[in-house]
Amino acid sequence: MSARFEELDWRRTPMGEISLRRRWDPALKVDVYEVKLGEDFLMSSVFTAGEIALARLGLAECSGADLDVVVGGLGLGYTAGAVLEDARVRSLTVVEALGEVIGWHERALLPLSPRLTDDRRCRLVRGDFFALATTGFDQEAPERRFHAVLLDIDHSPRHVLHPGHADFYRPAGLRRVAGRLHPGGVFALWSNDPPDAEFGAVLTEVFARHEAHVVEFDNPLQGRKAANTVYVATTATG
């Protein structure tokens, strides 16, 4: 059994104070890893079903092999880890704005860290996902296209971590990321909110088709079911 509580890292960042904590949960009998930004809980290893579903639902819409994938947002690594479970994936670029979060994985502070850092297909890149959607996710080959872009940064299209992110969830912003995809490519988005008809209309304007998947999971802290939404949108095939 680990120590009841341990702060593994704490840093000041441009987005505020960020901390990584590990605590032993006697009810679940597991170590729980949590990330806080200021007083806001960003993520917990208790709740990973939505992050894993983001990868699996997104990649399920990809055809063929030798897939090149981008994940926006590293966090605890569950989306990236699920991407690497798919043998069709040739390369994975994980874009994370905070070097401190990349450092956690490079220092092997999290359970999934070795899976990411030891896999030659996986590259952890410090950068602004929303800016790179405009300039190109591969700075050595700015025009490079990808088979899937999976995004888990903001709480939802309506509840963003920074006001500057809001424009991305409008038609012009989504067209930029669609332009980074191959024909028939996939854009998938995690949201903590229920399916949003208004955002669905924006996806309809930009992509050939889309679907909002409700991902239910147990919330052991509250003794009830909880749910996330994963939007999966595809570009036209040609």
C-alpha-based Rg, rounded? 17 Å
Q: Provide the low-confidence segments as ranges.
A: none
Number of separate domains:
1
Number of helices: 7
The amount of helix comes to 10-25%
Helix and strand sequence: EEEEHEHEHHEHEHEHEE
CATH homologous superfamily (4th level) name: Vaccinia Virus protein VP39
Please summarize the sheet with the most strands: 7 strands, mixed
What is the SS-derived class?
Answer: alpha/beta
Determine and state the CATH class.
Alpha Beta
- Spatial gap, N to C terminus: 55 Å
Beta-strand fraction estimate: 35-45%
Q: What's the β-strand tally? A: 11
| Average pLDDT metric | 93
Query: The CATH topology is what?
Result: Rossmann fold
Coarse shape: globular
Which architecture per CATH? Answer: 3-Layer(aba) Sandwich
Q: Which strand order does the major sheet show?
A: 7-6-5-8-9-11-10
Give me the secondary-structure topology.
Layout: E1 5-13, E2 16-25, E3 30-37, E4 40-44, H1 49-60, E5 67-72, H2 78-84, E6 89-96, H3 99-106, H4 113-117, E7 122-126, H5 129-135, E8 146-151, H6 171-178, E9 181-191, H7 197-206, E10 209-219, E11 224-234
Parallel strand pairs: 5-6, 5-8, 6-7, 8-9
Antiparallel strand pairs: 1-2, 2-3, 3-4, 9-11, 10-11
